[in-house]
């Protein structure tokens, strides 16, 4: 039996027994907040529990490192949809200690890409098209700097509504302890 078979079998039981009823909510976040965080497996349940969120409270966007590297990419588009279409009015970027993006080595990853069957020709075509893989696959040196850079990118976005608080936090993936590294309330007061 495959993992997909296991998932489908479990899901059939889940639906038949109406276990989904415990999670019913609307598509609008009750706490009007967007969380941008890392896809790290340690945060799947820990982060919402450590921040006192339940199903329906917030919009959670996950990616590698909680980093927004493209101001007009899919993560930032998701932020805009949440702000303009889903009644969110606050953004929190939550990075974490021991993040794999802090130790990401682009050259090592490119070698792994080759080992898993992507041809040198494909890599050369990408490079010749202007896609610099060593830059695109680069992580960050310091989690706090990574969080602050993402907070700043969001705050400077030309489509961000005025006075939207954008906060930055770091979570300990072992204990759930949170550290505030950028307070959007204080920064909004300073610009008023």
UniProtKB/TrEMBL annotation:
Entry-linked Gene3D superfamilies: Carbonic anhydrase
Listed GO MF terms: hydrolase activity
Required cofactor names: Zn(2+)
Recorded catalytic activity of this chain's protein: hydrogencarbonate + H(+) = CO2 + H2O
Hydrolase as UniProt keyword: yes
Claim: Signal is one of the keywords in the record: no
Enzyme Commission number(s) of this protein: 4.2.1.1
Keywords: Hydrolase, Metal-binding, Zinc
Signal sequence segment: none
Homology family: Belongs to the beta-class carbonic anhydrase family.
Record-given protein name: carbonic anhydrase
Species name: Paenibacillus auburnensis
